[in-house]
């Protein structure tokens, strides 16, 4: 699986062949096909492996293990330390296949839910999970992911380190949910 993550993380789904992944593994292509019936299936499995990394950092479906700032910093540091994994996540996944688009939407929705779990420890008031708040949370999560995409792909923020960018993203998210006149926790 790690070989597939590396290869897909360097070039994406459409530019990679199963032969290349097999070569990276040091096995015959038939060995890869024994475990995965198609390149799409292998790509989804590679995405799942990367998603598991993020779930570990963010606390997954359980209780948050850290504050919003700590989680955002952890994700950006992970991306800096694992650029191929980060490329697979942010650069190559979102619309790679129709099924991947659905998986990506579910991934984003999970992070919206997580944002609501971190927020009571982060902002000056508990956030409500009403429709307007969910839309704002989704906008914040999508904005944070877009910033990460632009950073890891080199399109913007060249030379900005993970901690500085994480600070900016966390501040943005906190400001979105802190009432006027109050300040979010740091």
From TrEMBL:
<dbReference type="InterPro" id="IPR009057">
    <property type="entry name" value="Homeodomain-like_sf"/>
</dbReference>
<keyword id="KW-0805">Transcription regulation</keyword>
<dbReference type="InterPro" id="IPR001647">
    <property type="entry name" value="HTH_TetR"/>
</dbReference>
<dbReference type="InterPro" id="IPR050109">
    <property type="entry name" value="HTH-type_TetR-like_transc_reg"/>
</dbReference>
<dbReference type="Pfam" id="PF00440">
    <property type="entry name" value="TetR_N"/>
</dbReference>
<keyword id="KW-0238">DNA-binding</keyword>
<feature type="DNA-binding region" description="H-T-H motif">
    <location>
        <begin position="17"/>
        <end position="36"/>
    </location>
</feature>
<keyword id="KW-0804">Transcription</keyword>
<feature type="domain" description="HTH tetR-type">
    <location>
        <begin position="1"/>
        <end position="54"/>
    </location>
</feature>
<protein>
    <submittedName>
        <fullName>Helix-turn-helix transcriptional regulator</fullName>
    </submittedName>
</protein>
